[in-house]
Known about the structure:
This protein has two domains: 7-14 and 264-383, Aspartate Aminotransferase, domain 1 (Alpha-Beta Complex); 18-261, Type I PLP-dependent aspartate aminotransferase-like (Major domain) (Aspartate Aminotransferase, domain 2). It contains 14 helices and 14 strands. It has helices at residues 18-24, 34-51, 64-75, 89-100, 118-127, 151-161, 211-219, 229-236, 247-263, 265-286, 313-324, 350-366, 375-384, 395-399; strands at 7-9, 57-61, 81-85, 104-108, 133-139, 141-142, 147-148, 166-170, 189-193, 204-209, 289-290, 302-306, 326-330, 339-343. A hairpin with a 4-residue loop joins strand 6 (141-142) and strand 7. Pyridoxal-5'-phosphate binds at residues 12, 63-65, 90, 139, 143, 170, 172-173, 193, 202.
Amino acid sequence: MHQGRHFLQIPGPSPVPDRILRAMDMPVIDHRSAEFGELGRAVLEGSQKIFQTSGPVVIFPSSVTGAWEAAIVNTLSPGDRVLMVETGHFATLWRQMAGRFGIEVDFIPGDWRRGADPAQIEAKLAADSARAIKAVMVVHNETSTGATSRIADIRAAIDRAGHPALLMVDTISSLGSVDYRHDEWKVDVSVSCSQKGFMLPPGLGFNAVSEKARAASKTNRMPRSYFDWEEMLKPNAKGFFPYTPATNLLYGLREAIAMLLEEGLDNVFARHQRLAAATRAAVNHWGLEVLCQEPAEFSPVLTAVLMPPGHDADQFRKVVLDNYNMSLGSGLSKVAGKVFRIGHLGECNALTLLGALTGVEMGLSVAGVPHRSGGVEVAMKLLEQRTPGNSSPHLKAVST
Ligand SMILES: *Cc1c(COP(=O)(O)O)cnc(C)c1O
């Protein structure tokens, strides 16, 4: 029997704030009504602010997998070549999907301990004198490893190579948590979802679309129906959808956007950086190893921790769940059983994180995993100092 709130410390789906739960607790309305049109316009325009784009954002009732598919089928044709980077499990899944659509993927191998290397991408593009590569497709925050690729640097690498390839980025676990600029970084398709930085339940998939991507969608040869951008963009102009949308998730989305903008995106990003730094300090103190090896790419959203040899990460996660009612993220595919992941995104503040780290430290003791105690205190010291990111962003809204 578990009392109190479950600690959902996986890197998505992330916990849904009460304010969003209340915003979604509404009757379903007529999706052809004027009232719906206002909601539709509010979330379509609001989403642009979060992607930092003035271009269209398409919102599908779908998982991320659907939004990945939309990015591919609207821009590429069977037989096209693309460049992708093996940053981890999610990059590998997106690559598999591209293959199923007949795309020829040049997959730069990786060791799952760092982000995509801009220099390697530049070299590949520079060598492509025929300009056959149609797109560079990378995962911004690789949720399976806790490494965040440097998209601005990748953009610069593409520009240095003078290559016309589209840039498509999976911002699934970064959007609304890590600085991300669709327009400034000249990204052509940004793929995202509801259940991570937006703090919503799963069920919405997003594509932010550049003019260049939209132009590609007018000439590419790939059959599509449900995920066709143009079918969406026509009714979207007035806030409507071509089919019944996920109305109540859109109520939640309107609230989530308001919360992110009230806190201020810069404060949101700084809060995630702070929580991540405190987490790594605790992990280092315990004497455990962070999976990501490149400090410039440490993820603000999650920290993947390597188990010492001879100890199973899933057994440890079970001890934590059974004893403390907390879910930690599992290791996926190549790193299954070898790592556990601590999510620190979305509705997470200093005390939430300290609760989570306390559960990890107690779990290490109970599971008999060798470690040095006192990691939580080290994190406390780092989080003691009061900063804007340390206070509740939601107090203001509650009291007014
Ligand atoms: C969470 C996550 C996904 C999950 O996709 P679903 O289809 O919604 O299960 C994909 N990619 C990344 C990078 C993620 O973090």
